[in-house]
Design brief:
Blueprint (H helix, E strand, L loop, with lengths): L3 E4 L3 E7 L2 H10 L9 E3 L13 E5 L1 H11 L4 E4 L1 E3 L2 H4 L1 H7 L2 E2 L4 E3 L4 E7 L5 E6 L8 H6 L1 H5 L3 E5 L4 H11 L7 E5 L17 E2 L3 H6 L1 H6 L3 E4 L6 E4 L6 E3 L12 H14 L4 H15 L12 H8 L1
Parallel strand pairs: 1-5, 1-11, 2-9, 3-10, 5-7, 6-8, 11-12, 12-13, 13-14
Antiparallel strand pairs: 2-4, 9-10, 14-15, 15-16
Helix pairs in contact: 2-10, 10-11, 11-12
Length: about 300
Amino acid sequence: MSDVVSFGSVNVDLVARLDQTTVKELPARYEWFPSLDETRVVESVPAEIDEFVNRTMIGGKGSNQSVAAARAGAATTLCGLVGSDEAEYSVLSTLNGRGVNVDHIESTDAETGKAYVFVDQAGENRIAIIPGANGAVDSAYADRHREALLDAECLLLQNEIPISTMESLVSSLESEPDRPTVIYDPAPSVGAEPLLQYDAVDIITPNAYEYELLRDAIADFEGTVIRKRGADPAIIQQPGRESVSVTPPDVSPVDTTGAGDVFNGYLAARLAAGEPLVGAVTVAITAASLATTEEGAQQAIPSMDIVRDFME
């Protein structure tokens, strides 16, 4: 049994650090170029974009959140698909070395998903995703690994695999008497609305950009909303209760890539360990803030010991 299972995407991150002039030029040149803090799915990017790439790392929201949960001390399993090129990037061996159980990851003929991560001089990011193998994660795959999904204390979902697959899974969970706590990160925000209609989705964690785009659907959502707001206080909204804000520590960010994933992974790990919601959010927002002080997504995720030492 795993404390946390992340059912979602596995990507190869192609990271480009951009100066402010280029950040202004690229949106004018390419209509697909994402907005600040946006994660956008695209079919492809032109070859000339590769000239901006200077680092290649393992990423993807499902993958990042699983590593964060493992760093937070949870027994963590990742479910998803990689491509036939995964060995070229050492995807599975890297994740396994970071404490994640990869026994349930399968391979498909498509290439492993790719994410172009554009980081500006302020450390803020914009992400364009080419789904690749992530787009082949279907209900048949979920059914094959259903036991692992049900055995979790917390189940992490993100919007980088087909929404139809997640709808089928979440719908089936509603009839399970002993289902996991489901935490849904509605990113990318496009197409996320249907999942907010299911009672089996317990917690959603939109950032400021996603919250504005999904405001109407969130107004009808009957679970807990945790609004991730970067350097501003996170806001916890629970039905029938007063909102609670949790202030992040003051840090000097270098790269915000994956900070939201660190939050979700830590949140799931602390809830699985039995910590109350506000306490879990406090630990998660601290871990996410510390992650922004280093470059990269998974490489920057702090251990639980580092987070505890910082909070003392």
